Amino acid sequence: MMPAPKPAVITFRDVVVEKNGTPILAGLTLRLSERRIGVIGRNGSGKSTFARLFNGIETPSSGEVGIDGKTGRKDLRRHVGFVFQNPDNQIVYPIVSEDLAFGLKNLKLTQQETAARIDTVLTRFGLAHLRDRFTHQLSGGEKQMIALAGVLVMQPRVIVFDEPTTLLDLCNKRRFMAALQELEQQIVVVSHDLDLLQGFDRVLHFENGTLCEDGPPAPVIAAYVARSQC
Amino acid sequence: MLTDLYVSGDSPVHRARPVRKIVALIVVCTGLFIFEGWPSVLTAGILVGAGFAMAGLRPRHALASLRPALWILVAIFAVQAMLTDALFAGFVTARFVVLILAAALVTLTTRTSEFVEGILAALTHAPHWIPKHQIALAISLCLRFIPLVRTVLEEVRQAQQARGTHASLTALLVPLVVRTLKTGDEVAQAIYARSPE
């Protein structure tokens, strides 16, 4: 495992997100510098919108999001990677190696540099045999790992995962969790799967577009479970 | 299926620049229609066969390329045989077979990204208002999402059958279009998220 770099400081200052006049997130002010951050909440609580703010996919109606003091969308996109819930919607090219090269084209790397980055990531996660495979022929677990690899080749400082294990079976979920543990990047994981967040440094609990609990996993998850009695 | 065609390899045919392969394909196809007759079909057939051999492709690859067009070839032969004679029908059909195999040789040995780069190269001198990169990305997305839309269609069809609905075009198309549009939205977000510039 590579030595872990210093985590970035991500700041949310008075962030409000509204869609068609309906508030999705209300007045969020937050400073995140932990290495492993979990985000939980009911459906429609605003946690996915919150996750999309990190990478600039979603823009605040007011307020600002920054990474290490820089608030430009380009800075967010350059330093924050995003892994979607459904890898089918994230994989753009028909062949694995072509898909991994997609984001790298923007970095103007040479062919050798591009190939080296792809090989390094594929080898690290035991995916080298998938290099020339058609993406639509991969299993769900393989697709999710390739989606992650597509983000890792960009060497982001922070990776945001939006419910990454929802579509995975138990075996693939465990494999994916092991891969998460190995990452030296700072990670933010939005999940309904509370097992995934064990051992995290900080967990945020959203309810109706506001941050209602924030702290170590055990008390925040306990409060969430208590509120969610059906 | 289109996206299943590429066969990886390191032959001279695989390594040849995509633009050259596309130009060669155009020359062979045009030649087949300018120089009518069995000699041109045989010559083109030998050239395409040599290309298959040089690329290390097997007869099953050629057969797989022809299979989707089989019924059309049979129809062409039958109509020509009725209107003219069996020999001319055989010539017309053989010409189509060679055309399909020539096109297959290009797609079997060229990656999607190489096609895209070839298109970008061809558009190098196009006016600045033509969105070259967007055109190239759109082509690659079409190839990528053919199997995805097919999977969605199959899921919707099975769901309709499970609910006892049969042969309803509206019941099939509405969820297919809705899911495809939703997927399109998320794909657009993913492309944005994966493009740092």
From TrEMBL, chain A:
Coiled coil, from the record: none
SUPFAM superfamilies (alphabetical): P-loop containing nucleoside triphosphate hydrolases
InterPro entries from the UniProt entry: AAA+_ATPase, ABC_transporter-like_ATP-bd, ABC_transporter-like_CS, ABC_transpr_CbiO/EcfA_su, ECF_ABC_transporter_ATP-bd, P-loop_NTPase
Keyword Transport appears in the UniProt entry: yes
Keywords: ATP-binding, Nucleotide-binding, Transport
GO CC terms of this entry: ATP-binding cassette (ABC) transporter complex
Domain ABC transporter, first and last residues per copy: 10-230
GO molecular function, one term: ATPase-coupled transmembrane transporter activity
One Pfam family cited in the UniProt record for this chain: ABC_tran
Record keyword Nucleotide-binding present: yes
Protein family (similarity comment): Belongs to the ABC transporter superfamily.
The protein, known as: Biotin transport system ATP-binding protein
Species name: Rhodovulum imhoffii
Classification lineage: Bacteria, Pseudomonadati, Pseudomonadota, Alphaproteobacteria, Rhodobacterales
TrEMBL record, chain B:
CDD domains named in the record: EcfT
TM region(s), chain numbering: 41-57, 64-82, 88-108
Protein name per the record: Biotin transport system permease protein
Coiled-coil regions listed in the entry: none
UniProt KW Transmembrane keyword: yes
Similarity field: Belongs to the CbiQ family.
Keywords: Cell membrane, Membrane, Transmembrane, Transmembrane helix
Keyword Membrane (UniProt): yes
GO cellular component terms, semicolon-separated: plasma membrane
Record organism: Rhodovulum imhoffii
Membrane topology qualifier: Multi-pass membrane protein
InterPro entries xrefs: ABC/ECF_trnsptr_transmembrane (IPR003339), ECF_transporter_component (IPR051611)
Cellular localization per UniProt: Membrane
Main location: membrane
